[in-house]
Amino acid sequence: MTVVQELGGVQVMVCAAEGEPVAGEQDAVDLLGNAYYQGASWVAVPVSRLGEEFFRLRSGVAGGVVQKFAQYRMGLAVVGDVSPQVERSDALRDFVRESNRGLQLWFVADLAELAERFAG
């Protein structure tokens, strides 16, 4: 189940922790369609919905998903603790750091942090 919430003045489709994994570009397109239908401009996906392949940058899953969001000009927030994945990969650590500097993809601990980023 998903719900649209206003966080820091932005309409965000917040995905439930339970549900189908976001395992590739088609899953991203499905999320995008749902978010557009509900009037959201960002999608917040819990870490639990992203498989290990997403966090293995060589797999191309993260790149494909993020590219779809960029093509449709919608933001993506990965919500939750990614420290276990980051500890295993210098490339992922760099990816997370650079993403958080941008405006398209953010890795945040929780929805409160996401709201702060929008408000600030």
What is this structure, in a nutshell?
The chain has 120 residues and is α/β, with parallel strands linked by helices. Helices cover 46% and strands 22% of the residues.
Please tell me about this protein's structure.
The model has no long low-confidence stretch (mean pLDDT 96). This protein has a single domain (7-119), classed as Transcription Regulator spoIIAA (2-Layer Sandwich), CATH 3.30.750. By secondary structure, the chain is an alpha/beta fold. It is built from six helices and five strands. It is 46% helix and 22% strand.
Record keyword descriptors for this entry.
single chain, 120 residues, alpha/beta, Transcription Regulator spoIIAA, 6 helices, 22% strand, globular
Oligomer: single chain
How much of the sequence lies in strands comes to 15-25%
The CATH class, by name, is Alpha Beta
H/E series: EEHEHHEHHEH
Task: Describe the secondary-structure layout.
Layout: E1 2-7, E2 10-15, H1 25-38, E3 42-46, H2 52-55, H3 61-71, E4 75-79, H4 83-87, H5 90-101, E5 105-108, H6 111-119
Parallel strand pairs: 2-3, 3-4, 4-5
Antiparallel strand pairs: 1-2
Helix pairs in contact: 1-3
